[in-house]
């Protein structure tokens, strides 16, 4: 049995060899080309998928018929021949049946969209299982099963442009062939990649796309061919010189390297800014503010500020391709000129301005001081024990800084001696508008209270056991030692205390009367020991009231 196996396999191998030898591609029976599209008809029995593959091998796809123009192209290609041809319409897998209520009945073009301005369906209702479309000689569309072979198929090829039919003298035939296999002499437009054979002249020309430009007929050999054939391929004019064709270009253009095209002399020029055509060549030029460098193509910035005289009144700053004018401090630019500004024009001082060598600054009238929080504002302030009251323009509504009382008789602000009111536990120093408390050795100041400094065991430290630098000034002399008082001294002290109470009562009555007559306030405020140190000047003790 084993020797029979090669004999049985031999017919199968011969069948496979014959199948491979059969050409899968067929040439189109006819083709029509427009400026951007070509349509071709193939009379070969194929299924829908086989027809689609045949179009794709030529760089196209099954034909989409979206307008009457495409329908007219089909009519020319069929030439009244009987048979049905595949179109580029199929039903998507998601739809089981056709839908007669829709323009394309649910079908999609092979390009993946549903757009169309034209349909020509043969009368039919809802159909299932027939998922592809053919067209007949009557140009009507009909659903068919995709697996069943049709009599042929229509292909469509799209291009960015085309070459025109070559103009020749009578009796000089031209044969064309397209990239998708169509041949003939009656084409009106040829897609890129097409070839023209002129046997009588021994020429073979090719339609080139020109690197994205308009396609033109050309060949590998530079220079013009006979002028009677498509103008010699010249982009300009073709002329005969001593029996040899030659291309020439209009003024302002030069021949391209192929000897047929025309281009600007500036095409490919390396000018950094501008290229200007001049006498068949070019010259590089630069924008305003730049000058041409020594290499003739680059541009260098001009330092406008280095010119004499300079372009600016005061300060000049050079920029790329230009310059900027600035003004000195105290000036500002107005209509292109530097104008002197009045002192402190940009400070907005509340009261007055002080011109100083190191820069202008705001100042205040007597009785006021610059507000530390806002240097352009002023606030009431006295740095002595007595200063003029601050009154309105009409002389009324007089007021005094905090810590001062208004004396309406003399319109003066009198410093209040806060130390007489017993604010401090120990020693007190009065300052203009405020006061300072001082503590003895072994205590520290907290607010206005003196707190004893304790040792490690929680007991008050003796003056000799703990040496701490006091946070406030120390009294000028130590406090007196406690001693028994003589009875006479006690009586004297009691009498003196009574007289002091009477004196204080009389002073209080006098101050109350003044308070009622003025707008000043008797309420004195507590100020910390450093409240008024800013801007104060020491006052001799003789000036205290």
From TrEMBL:
Domain C-type lectin positions: 34-148
GO MF, one example: calcium ion binding
Membrane topology of this protein: Single-pass type I membrane protein
InterPro entries in the cross-refs: C-type_lectin-like, C-type_lectin-like/link_sf, C-type_lectin_domain, cEGF, CTDL_fold, EGF, EGF-like_Ca-bd_dom, EGF-type_Asp/Asn_hydroxyl_site
Classification via CDD domains: EGF_CA (cd00054)
Residues annotated as domain EGF-like: 301-339, 415-451
Entry annotated with the keyword Transport: no
Gene3D superfamilies: Laminin (2.10.25.10), Mannose-Binding Protein A, subunit A (3.10.100.10)
Entry's transmembrane regions: 489-512
Signal peptide: 1-21
Subcellular location field: Membrane
Entry GO terms, CC: membrane
PANTHER family given in the database record: CHONDROLECTIN VARIANT CHODLFDELTAE, THROMBOMODULIN
Name the UniProt record assigns to this protein: Thrombomodulin
Protein source organism: Junco hyemalis (Dark-eyed junco)
